[in-house]
Design brief:
Strand 2 and strand 3 form a beta hairpin. The chain folds into 3 domains: 170 residues, Heat Shock Protein 90, CATH 3.30.565; 82 residues, predicted glycosyltransferase like domains (Thrombin, subunit H, Beta Barrel), CATH 2.40.10; 112 residues, Beta Barrel (Thrombin, subunit H). It is an alpha+beta fold and 391 residues long. The longest helix is centred in the first third of the chain and has 20 residues.
Amino acid sequence: MIRQIESPVLPLAVAAEHTFLQIPSQPEWIAPTVEYLKEKAILCGACHPDRIKKLTLALHEALTNSVIHGNLELPSDLKERADLSFAEAMCQRAADPRYGSRVVEVEVAYDGERCQWIFTDQGKGFDIESVLAQASSTDEPEVMLSCGRGILLMRAFLDELRYELGGRRAVLTLNRASGEEKRRYPRLPLQRAIRVAPIRPNGAVDWDAAQEAVAQNLSSGGIAILQSRLSNSDRVLVGIDWQGQMLYIPAEVRHCQSHGGVVELGCRFQVSPPTSNGAGNNVERAIGPLLEQLTGLPVPSDERRVHPRAAYTARITVETGPDQPSVVGFGRDLSRGGIAFLTSTPLALGKVTLTLPQPNQRALRFLARIVRCHQLVSGIYDVGAQFLDVV
C-alpha cells in the first residue's frame, strides 16, 4: 500500500519574521514593494489569503502616503483637482534631489501572533489630531480630503492603525486570528433598499448622518452593502424594511472599498453577550412573542445568534428605586437582549425596572441594567438597557 505524503505547509512553521527595507521616493517603487510585502505576508502565515486583498490596499495606501505626501511633500488637496496639477507636481518633486533622494524605511515584524508594518518617511509630518478628527467626524465624506479617506480605509481593513513621530511613521497591525476571516454563514442575494446610520464612539446613533444604501447579500452573520459615500465609522446601524416593519441591526464594518464612485461595505452583525445565569431564559420566553409581533418572524432562541432589533416606539416607564418617581421613556428599538429608548431624564448606570406595554396583552416588566446614557441634544438622552430577568 502506497501512502500519499502531504506537502508541508511552510507558513505554519514560521515562528517569527523580521524584514527591513529602504525604499527610494520614486512612485514606480510603490507597486512592486507592496507586492513584495503581500507575498511575504502570505508565505510567513501573517495573513490568510482570504484577507490579502484588504491588506494589499492598506499597505498600498500607507506606502503611497509615505512617498507622495511624506517625502515628496505633495498636499492632499492637490489630488482633488480635476486637472493634471497633481501628476505634474509629482514628476517635478520626484526629479528634485531635495525630495526624490529621501527614503522610506519599511519594517516588518511578525511574532507568530500578529504582524506589524512600520512605514517611516523623512518628510515634515502632519497634524495627526486634525486629520484623525476629520476622518472620524460626521462631515460629508465626499468633501473629505484623500488623506482622510485613506485613513478610514486602513482602519476598516486592519486591527490597529496609529501614527508616531509627528505623523512621519505609520504603524499597521494585523492579528493572525482576525486575518483568517473564514465565512461561517452562507450568504444569500438580497437586492433591497436599506438605511445605514453610523454609531458614534460613545454608542449614540448619528441619525443625521444616515444614508440610503442597497443590500447586496445577507446571511445570519453579516451583510454586504453598496452606498454612495465612504463609511466614517467602524460601527453602524443597518435598517431593513421587513413586512412593513423597520428592523435595526447593529453591525461592525469589516471592510470599506470604493469602486468607481460606489462604496462597498462588508458588515458583521454584532452579537449581544449571553447572560451569566439562567435568567436569560426567562427574558427569551417573555420577549420572544413580542418580537414576533413586531417583526412577523420567529426569532431563534440559540444564544449564539445575532440579536436582530425591531422598531419599538411604545411609551415605557423606568423605575430607578424605592420612593423615586418613575421616569417616562419612548422606545426606539428592541431585541431579546435589551432595549434602546429616549428620555428627558438622565439615568445613572445600574439596575432599574422597565415596564414595556405590548399590544392587547398585559405589560412586560423586566429587571434591567442601564449600560449607556448619552445626551443627544439639550434635554434629550439616548439610553441603552440590557435585560437581566423578568419581574
